[in-house]
Structure formats: C-alpha cells, structure tokens
Write a structure and sequence with these properties.
Blueprint: H1 3-14, E1 17-22, E2 25-37, E3 40-50, E4 65-69, E5 73-79, E6 98-102
Antiparallel strand pairs: 1-2, 1-5, 2-3, 2-6, 3-4
Length: 105
C-alpha cells in the first residue's frame, strides 16, 4: 500500500481533511470510502473547497462527491477541521468495489 493510501486511511478513521492537488486542481476534501476498484486504489471524497473541472457547488450539495484515483494525488496533506458531507451519503456508491475502510457517520 502506498504512503498516501495509509494517510487517507488514517484520515477516514480520525475524520480529518485531505488537502491535495488532483488533475491540476487544488482540492480540500473529506474522505468517506477507501479501497480498490478493478485493483486500482480509489477514495470517495466529499469536496468542500478548492477547484475542479466540473466546478464546486455550495457546501452540502450532493454534486460535490469526487471519486479520486489515489495514484494521481499530489502534495497530499492531512489536517483537522469540521467534517463535510452531503445528505445523499447513504446512497450506493460505485467508486470503490472492495471497501477497506468507510467513515462512520
């Protein structure tokens, strides 16, 4: 497992933020589900700040979910802060098919 994977795993367990660059955009996210899909390490995050190709809706909006391929994350940092999510967290997700760890809300 990659060091970044382990950082995100700990962030889920402690309900911490993940700050990183992904696809050229700085993002601030709360990771919810970590594991693999087709053998690739991925994380389902709720993005609450920063930028993305699709833009960012207001806080709490259900369109701010991001499926992130861990190998594409750069400059990863973990920090404490208020937890962010959306009301549709309980809907089935397709980002991760082999779940390693998931947030307990």
């Amino acid at each position: 497992m990659s060091t970044v994977y382990e950082m995100i795993r700990l962030a889920i367990q402690k309900k911490q933020h993940v700050l990183a660059t992904y696809k050229g955009h700085y993002r601030e996210m709360c990771p919810h589900v970590l594991g693999t899909k087709h053998g690739r390490q991925q994380v389902l995050c709720y993005q609450f700040a920063g930028t993305s190709d699709s833009g960012l809706a207001p806080a709490g909006h259900p369109s701010n979910w991001r499926c992130i391929t861990i190998s594409n994350l750069q400059d990863v940092e973990i920090r404490d802060g208020d937890w962010h999510t959306a009301p549709n967290h309980s809907r089935p997700q397709t980002c991760v098919d082999a779940v390693d760890v998931e947030i307990e809300l």
